[in-house]
Write a structure and sequence with these properties.
Layout: E1 2-6, H1 10-19, E2 26-31, H2 35-45, E3 49-51, H3 53-57, E4 63-66, H4 73-82, E5 86-90, H5 97-109, E6 114-117, H6 124-134, E7 141-149, H7 158-161, H8 168-184, E8 189-197, E9 203-212, E10 215-222, E11 230-235, E12 238-243, E13 250-255, E14 258-263, H9 271-283, H10 293-303, E15 314-315, E16 319-322, H11 329-336, H12 342-345, H13 353-362, E17 369-374, E18 380-387, E19 400-407, H14 416-431, E20 436-442, H15 446-455, E21 458-468, E22 473-483, H16 484-491
Parallel strand pairs: 1-2, 1-4, 2-3, 4-5, 5-6, 7-10, 19-20
Antiparallel strand pairs: 7-11, 8-9, 9-10, 11-12, 12-13, 13-14, 15-16, 16-17, 17-18, 18-19, 20-22, 21-22
Length: 496
């Protein structure tokens, strides 16, 4: 198979080194808008031909690896298809499900192979993790986590700053979401998506909370800080993880208390996806079974929402209810480490800022979970959440929710929680169109009881031996409820 690489950026070096190791591939040359660059790359890798894109589109090459600026992918893919060249395009290949469908349909009509290059799902280490999951090594899987963090060493690059085709989630998030989708074998639902943006308004850090039919997924990406690039799957029997999962082959597991490390030697990081692509070309297969149209669509179903996902902020007279942010970690720890705060609500005091950061990124990152911040200082002093279907034992429909909250001890007895609860009730009934809001407290939590009574919740029942899983104990629980009619009678016509 005669292959040419479109684009002479940094990534082209690694693609070329891998392509030279694939026996089915004859790396003909490089194409670029900068002919001098293309010539230099040809000389470096011993290729025989260089030129601009049109030169190779009109040549006898069989396939093109597109590794150009993200915003150029759509146009170049169409041109390659028009010239009957098989296409493998670096991730993120496209930026909407509509574009994805358009170009895959176009490729099928022309009988041309089109595949997104997501190398992580072809690595033997990731395939081994999927095999372990499928064979039940972890038992029932409860959580899957992936992170990709790196400092942006080239701050003017389009992949960092381009508002429409750059940013951390669209680029690095493809690895995280795509790899988790591959391991879970399905498309997730997006529960929440939060991001910090740089001066160019492209996202520099993003957190996505996902649901894989009851398995909690979390993707954390950043191109503005260094940190772990980690894949971890947790089940009832233990965990499996891989550091630098996108390019390395080491797997660490701890199952039934036994820790194991397995090193899987890799030829090179791009080698395996290129072998797969070359096999498809040799066999005349027009769609990958691994990176299919649906696989690319399922990634875009999550990453494509970043520009539409806006933070919901609500004001009261003295407070702002907003999503949690990394700068809140010190204040979260300051208040959540107090033994007077967490245990009465059913969770243990935080032991460190690192523990608070983990809680923020896993438990407090849901779409309807808000930091309670003082309007004067923007300091986060507590938390309030509307728990939706799947996160409460009181209901199993989309028209009911459960209200939960806590407040830092120095701010007790100021009426802050009643103020926040009234605002969240307005949000639940008027914005989310709920028919019922549930609320509960453990026996002895008199402050929470008074907040609920003051808000107008109506007592429903008391249960004994209620499990408190985070504290591994049982308690007496009291359950209250408010219907939409109750809300209208109490707050109708009132401006909250």
């Amino acid at each position: 198979m005669k292959l040419v690489i479109f684009g002479c950026g940094r990534i082209a070096n690694r693609i070329a080194k891998s392509a030279l190791k694939v026996k089915q591939i004859d790396l003909v040359g490089f194409a670029s808008r900068d002919i001098g660059k293309a010539k230099a790359y040809c000389e470096t890798y011993g290729c025989r031909e260089y030129g601009d894109y049109e030169h190779f589109l009109n040549s006898d090459v069989d396939a093109v690896y597109i590794a150009t600026y993200n915003g150029s992918h759509h146009e170049l893919i169409r041109k390659c298809i028009d010239h009957h060249k098989s296409v493998i395009c670096e991730k993120p290949m496209l930026f909407s499900m509509e574009e994805n469908k358009e170009l895959f349909d176009y490729a099928k009509r022309h009988g041309v192979l089109l595949m997104e290059a997501l190398k992580s799902v072809f690595l033997p280490s990731v395939i081994e993790i999927r095999k372990m999951i499928d064979e039940g090594a972890l038992g029932k899987v409860s959580m899957i986590y992936s992170s990709f963090m790196r400092q942006g060493h080239h701050p003017k690059d389009h992949w960092i700053n381009d508002l429409w085709t750059g940013g951390a989630f669209k680029d690095l998030g493809s690895y995280c979401v795509g790899t988790m989708n591959f391991l879970m074998g399905k498309r997730p639902e997006l529960l929440s998506l939060q991001s910090d943006r740089n001066e160019e308004r492209a996202e520099s850090t993003a957190y996505a909370s996902l649901d894989y039919d009851g398995v909690h997924g979390l993707a954390f990406v950043s191109n503005s800080r260094d940190g772990d690039t980690l894949l971890r799957v947790v089940g009832e029997r233990g965990y499996i993880e891989a550091q630098n999962f996108w390019k390395q082959g080491k797997i660490v597991s701890e199952i039934d208390g036994v820790r194991k490390e397995k090193d899987i030697e890799l030829v090179s990081d791009f080698y395996y996806e290129l072998c797969h692509f070359a096999d498809l070309c040799d066999q005349g297969i027009k769609e990958s079974s691994i990176m299919s149209e649906k696989a690319s669509e399922d990634i875009l179903y999550i990453t494509g929402q970043i520009d539409d996902y806006k933070e919901n902020t609500m004001d009261t007279e003295r407070l702002i209810l907003r999503h949690w942010r990394d700068e809140d970690i010190p204040s979260l720890y300051k208040y959540a480490k107090d033994p007077s705060v967490g245990p009465i609500a059913g969770w243990p005091p935080h032991q460190s800022e690192a523990a608070s950061a983990w809680v923020m990124h896993t438990a407090l990152n849901k779409k309807e979970c808000y930091a309670i911040a003082l309007k004067d200082t923007n300091e986060a002093i507590g938390c309030i959440e509307v728990k939706l279907k799947g996160y409460s034992d009181f209901f199993d429909n989309d028209e009911e929710c459960e209200l939960g909250y806590w407040l830092g001890k120095p701010h007790w007895n100021n009426g802050y929680m009643s103020e926040a609860v009234q605002r969240m009730l307005k949000h639940a009934f008027e914005d989310l169109h709920m028919k019922k809001v549930w609320c509960a407290y453990y026996d002895g939590n008199e402050r929470s009881k008074r907040v609920q009574e003051k808000a107008g919740f109506i007592y429903q029942w008391t249960s004994k031996d209620v499990d408190v899983p985070l504290l591994k104990e049982k308690r007496i629980g009291h359950v209250n409820c408010m219907t939409k009619d109750d809300y209208n009678k109490r707050y109708g016509g009132e401006t909250l």
